[in-house]
Write a structure and sequence with these properties.
Blueprint: H1 5-22, H2 30-43, H3 49-65
Length: 84
């Protein structure tokens, strides 16, 4: 079964997205981050959906640990100048 590269990208992102959503790890820029990571791997020749999704999840978690991801649920009470 041949799958287009765009379909491979879409399906791989969906797998990673659903997993992160179910584990409560999903944040604002997840879709962009996951698609960028997966697209890069596809360009390098990787075609296994589960591998693509799993590596994207691992890289997303690592990026999140470094503070490079913005949370979806922002607590605006700590933002300077916001009313309490």
């Amino acid at each position: 079964m041949d799958v287009s590269l765009s379909q491979l990208l879409e399906e791989s992102v969906e797998i990673a997205w659903v997993y992160l959503q179910r584990t409560g790890e999903l944040e604002n820029d997840a879709a962009r981050y996951l698609s960028d990571v997966i697209e890069m791997m596809i360009r390098r020749g990787q075609r296994n959906r589960m591998f693509l999704a799993n590596i994207a999840i691992i890289k997303y978690r690592a990026s999140k640990d470094k503070g490079n991801v913005v949370p979806i649920r922002e607590d605006v009470s700590h933002v300077q100048g916001s009313p309490n």
